[in-house]
Amino acid sequence: MTGVLLINLGTPDEPTVPAVRRYLKEFLSDPYVIDINPLARWLLVNCVISPFRAPKSTLAYRKVWTDRGSPLLFYTVDLTKKVAEKLGNGFVVEMAMRYGRPSIEEGMKKLIQKGVSEIRVLPLYPQYASSSTGSTIDEVNRLAKKMNSPPFKILPAFYNHPGFVKSFAEIGMPILNDLKPHHVLFSFHGLPERHILKGDPYRDHSFHTAHAIAKVLGLKPDEYSVSFQSRLGRTPWIKPYTDLILVELAQKGKKKVAVFCPSFVADCLETLEEIGIRGRESFLAAGGEKLELIPSLNTHPMWVEAVCGLVSTPAQAG
């Protein structure tokens, strides 16, 4: 019996200030995420970010929260169920979050209790970044030793996997055909520039993803561009910045814009609120007429098929 563990980044338990504060503290206390002196990190997280950012983030989470809870959580739960159904006998599929619940430890424990002979771990981050993929790999390795885990394999980043690329194109194509945008923007989560200078391949992976999706969509080089969102703090992050690019596009007369967010495989705060609400408001205020957020992969059948291929094909799993 083969165990499969799908890992996403995480989400608060509920859209309340205490819950968001707990989540932010766990997330931002990770040295992979804020890679500075431990004392400086503790002061920054506990004395600056947590007290002041939690209330603001809570308001944002409330805008995207549903009857089922956090979109990131329930889309990951649904994906896990569909992958399990498609893989069928011989596989046990669980999901976990790097931060928040269910934890990686909970997910691994379920697989071990079900008697799996090996575990295949798929971090659901398409592009490799030390702050997401690297941190997750480190946590899986730590827990595997602690829990006397069966043999496990951590699957590589899938930024250029055909199934991943074609899934985004499949979702976006009918929307682009209907909207006929003046420009298409591929917005990826940002990282501090110092991470890239240390050798992190994330920026290169992001451009590979954007170019691959654009090629399937038949976009010409001048019809699309790449930007990076969600920057935090005063240190330089990788450019160009999505919030500034959206304003520039509107000011340049690109009245209709479509935005893909291919660093996220499930809709979440960063897609639905940051781009779908705040990004749209900024774009319209700058003179734009329509901004269309392309839905994420969520549980699209082609994406479910791609995930099954990633975790079940020996070449991919090796």
Topology of this structure?
Blueprint: E1 2-10, H1 17-28, H2 38-64, H3 71-87, E2 91-99, H4 104-113, E3 118-123, H5 130-147, E4 152-154, H6 162-179, E5 183-189, H7 193-197, H8 202-217, E6 224-229, H9 242-251, E7 256-260, H10 269-285, E8 290-293, H11 301-312, H12 314-317
Parallel strand pairs: 1-2, 1-3, 3-4, 5-6, 5-7, 7-8
Helix pairs in contact: 1-2, 2-10, 3-11, 4-5, 6-8, 6-11, 9-10
Q: What is the overall pLDDT average? A: 95
Number of strands: 8
Biggest sheet character: 4 strands, parallel
Low-confidence stretches: none
- Rough outline: globular
Please tell me how large the radius of gyration is.
19 Å
User: How many alpha or pi helices?
Assistant: 12
Sketch the topology as an H/E string, one letter per element.
Answer: EHHHEHEHEHEHHEHEHEHH
Structural class from helices and strands?
Answer: alpha/beta
Question: What do we call the CATH topology of the domain at 162-293?
Answer: Rossmann fold
The largest sheet has its strands arranged as 2-1-3-4
